[in-house]
Amino acid sequence: MSQVVVISGLAQGMGREVALMLADAGHAVAGFDVDADGITSLGKALDQKGAMHVLEVLDITDRKGLNDFKERVLRELGRVDTVLSNVGIGFFGPFEEVDLEAALKCLEINVIGAAALFQEFIPSMRKQGRGKLIAMSSLVGRIPFPFESIYTATKFAIQGLVESIQYEVKPFGIQTAIIEPAQVSTNFAAKIHKLPPEGSPYRGRAGRFIDQDNALIKDATTPAAAAKRIIRVITKDRVRLHYQVDFQSSFFLFLNRILPKFVRDLILLNYMDIKT
Questions:
Q1: How many domains does the chain contain in total?
Q2: Cβ(250)–Cβ(215) under 8 Å?
Q3: CA–CA gap between residue 165 and residue 172 (Å, rounded)
Q4: Contacts of 257 (CB under 8 A, 6+ apart)
Q5: Which of 16, 78, 98, 249 has the CA that lies 20 to 30 A from 185?
């Protein structure tokens, strides 16, 4: 059965691939992004496929705009079956040197943004007696990484948010899921990697971390491959709470369950080339 799927942050990367694959399968797509050019080109691509869609240029922090978007989607498409919270920004740097005002923006977009999106569409799902809320999280939502303390905090928060929501909405037929990729070969990390200034006691280790991260991204899962896994979650009749889209995240989460903490820490420090 075809679905109406809402996706935040769908102008580029995984979100865009998911939107295009959904259209190919006959589903309707609604979504938004701050990238106006990306939204325009995506709209043209969806038009060429003959797909029903509602797209807007919108910032997730614009609460009124988000409410207006919700009303438009329900008015034009009639219902929403699945909401995929995909919008998010990265954050990198030694915690001691973090600009907390910038950190607050990351928390606002990554956590409160997802909460606001879900909040908008839960009422209509509750009334229709079914729906799915899916949040894009990350491996660091369960395994914290150094130099990513703020980003890690947002993904831990997403885990807690969705795991709490599930108990409240399940009686209304609304399912919840969290997708936890390790790395996807996009420019997401490159946008945030910034070497600490000369004289920083963290500069050497942070530089090695960046070099290793960049090397790993070259062999990471592609957005298209990740999107195929995400589509499976969207189209499943029944979903579980946690999903991965790549072997790397599944393997690390397995090790995280079975190994003592000091062994896990040693593996992480060696893996990211930051052992002192």
A1: 1
A2: no
A3: 12
A4: none
A5: 98
> Is pLDDT at 17 greater than 80 in this prediction?
yes
Domain contains 33: yes
Record the tokens describing residue 71, joined without a space.
Answer: 């009303």
Q: Does residue 118 sit within a domain? A: yes
Residue 66 burial (CB count, 10 A): 21
Identify which of 171, 30, 7 has the alpha carbon closest to the alpha carbon of residue 88. Answer: 7
pLDDT tens column, 174-197: 999 999 987 665 566 556 788 999
Q: Tokens 């919008």 map to which residue?
A: 87
Q: Is the Cβ–Cβ distance between 185 and 222 less than 8 Å?
A: yes
72-75 long-range contacts (CB < 8 A, ≥24 apart) are: 73/4, 73/6, 73/30, 74/124
Query: What does the alpha-carbon distance between residue 165 and residue 174 come to, in Å, rounded to a whole number?
Result: 10
Gyration radius (Cα) of the chain, Å: 19
Kindly report the pTM of this predicted structure.
Answer: 0.92
How far apart, in whole angstroms, are the C-alpha atoms of residue 95 and residue 74?
Answer: 42
Bridge partner list, 132: 82, 175
Residue 176 belongs to a domain = yes
87: containing domain: 4-271
Where residue 228 sits, what CATH number does that domain have? 3.40.50.720
Mapped onto helix, strand or coil, the DSSP state of residue 102 is: helix
Q: Are 74 and 124 in contact (CB under 8 A)?
A: yes
